Amino acid sequence: MSQDGFGFVLRFNRRYSMAHRLISGEAPNCRIPHGHDEVVEVELVETGNRGLDDRTNMLVEFSRIKGRWFQWIDKSVDHSFHLGSGDPLIDYFQSNEPDLATKLLVTPGDPTTEIRAACFATKLHSFLQEENPDFACRKLTIQETPTNSVSFYPAELASVVPSGDQHWWNRPDTTINDF
Fold it and tell me: Looking at residue 174, what DSSP letter applies?
């Protein structure tokens, strides 16, 4: 049994490309739009104490537990442009290139790796609640560069990102913004 009382941890990851910019001024090099090839890694635990399936010797078949998550990463997050909710580029896209606005991933405040990890973990939680409620995310890590990563332990989701279905991260759909 692991330190946190769970016997098995399911771990999987996905690579995606993205661009972002941070306008708060805390990271001057990040004020200009730039991109990263990132990897998001998820650790899930089974919370219902079911144990292994007697027939399959699995907690759950991997494609069943990660399919919707991978689809969201591949279709919505990959090649998206991450902006904070107050970034004036949002207005530019909505006015001048509305067809590209669906590829804007919008976070509360600057789209740092930290806030995106919390938003991603919350989105994953909404998927799990709808399709696999006996599982929970124990840890979500975004590797931004080969030397920098952020891990988020989503025990207190609501304390980091706002709650409510009006926010994309709380809905079990493919959205990445609230336009």
Answer: S
Q: Domains of the chain (ranges plus CATH)? A: 9-170 (3.30.479.10)
The answer to whether the beta carbons of residues 167 and 150 sit under 8 Å apart is no
Predicted model pTM: 0.93
pLDDT in tens, 67-101: 999 999 999 999 999 999 999 999 999 999 999 99
E strand intervals along 69-171 = 80-84, 104-107, 135-145, 148-152
d(CA 93, CA 31): 18
Q: Is 30 exposed, middle or buried (0-12, 13-18, 19+ CB in 10 A)?
A: middle
| Tokens, residue 166 | 């009006």
Query: β-strands 80-84, 9-20: how paired?
Result: parallel
- For tokens 């909505």, the residue is 94
